[in-house]
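Q: My labmate handed me this sequence with no annotations at all. I'd like to see what the chain might look like in three dimensions before we decide whether it's worth expressing. Could you predict it?
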Amino acid sequence: MKPCSPVVFIGLDSADPALLLQWEEEGLLPSLGSLRRQSLRGETILPSGLGTGAMWVSLYSGVSPARHGRYFGRQIDDDAYRVVPFRPNAVKQEPVWVAASHANKRVAVIDVPVAPLAESLNGIQIKDWGAHDPVYPTVQTCPPSLAEDVTARYGTDVVGSCDRPRKGGGAYKEFRDRLVERVDRKGQLICDYLQAGGWDLFMAGFGDSHCVAHQAWHLHDSGHPLHDPEFAKAYGDPVKDVYIALDRAIGQILQCVPPATTFILFSGSGMGPNYTGNHLLDEALRRLEGIPATQEHQAIQAVKQVYRKLLPDNVRSWLGPLGDRVDELSLAGDRARRMFYSLPHNDLSGAIRFNVVGREPNGRVKRGDEYDALCVALRRALMELRNPDTGKPVVTNVLKTSDLYSGKYLDELPDLLVLWNREQPITVIASEKIGEVRGVRMSKRTGDHIHTGAFFACGPGIEVGDLDEPVPVESFAPTIAALLGVALPGVDGATIPAICG
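A: Here is what I predict for the chain of 501 residues:
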């Protein structure tokens, strides 16, 4: 084990590794190119079937989702069959920076995605200044008095919640420009606090690559059904512009990193077009079980279809939280009488929950042989689903979470994850068992996550080159702890030898 080293970790939330590589090779990302020439580069293994809500927590805690309990921004409340927001402070495992702080290391944490806000630290934390999915309406800090300094020096977040509908080239141009501005400000903020000096661990994240890919993938991807070539001619590629701004910020940050520091740049999960069958999954499950929706739920769904057609986007966006709560009330009663049902999830995979005896109030599926047999039967039925227009399968795999994960909070996770064939939009699914289910995905997002991640690491004793084997994201927390000389017992990940020595 080599001597302790300060660590600077920068996360590019949902920056696609393939795009980073492509644009670096084209000379558009010179800072990344310079970093790559002096770094160890590796691919990462992300939590199977799950998205960024699980990935980031596993990265900074070192444990699997079954041990930290988070897989998505909204999760099931077993006592009421309702889906409720998952707050970052409900994460069941301490982040690596808390362990470092307890070990008298001085730490700085700035907008690491889906991170809990610490009550006290030997250092500072800044949360929701430029996050993709902010929890709080204004920036929050530890200590609380720091918020005033942050706002006075860098202003407020010029983007805010990015996940809202936009129409017209002008709106997307303004969105792109504000993201670029936010990247520039965040880069300056990071550099200023980094140069304050004395940090043993400095971790920061950029949420802008996440925002732009969700909202503007169709303006980047010429093969997307909603691609607008006229926008491209007039304004260019918003995704590329944000990546170029991020590269500029990386270059600025690298100039501020003290000597003899281990620097890690992480990107992931990757992004692609938002093609999913999640909107069709619950009806398919109903037909497999042979149980129709309640009249209450059918009525609410009919009302939702009307307001989607008649109300302007800004009004729908404003009414969205209220509509979700009303929808959940009807769904709760519906879920209670079923054997299995779908849950909200990242569009990369469908999430299925069983009504398990002893876990849910009205459990209908017994653990053991009955549970296992149902998993096998559902997997077989879902793998038979086809697109009748093309004859191609719409499901590539169905994963049983208990085969993938183990831990105290396994029951917080879905029971099955349905991986979609995302080669093209999914508007119809069919099989002999369910007939045909048709529907168009109503989403503000044209881009969504894929299972790719990468990292670059440079510093004392780290050799330049490419790792042969991908690294689980759970390995980053113990690696950071080892570099700091801090104990991090009981984690799932192992240290990365090529970084720790």
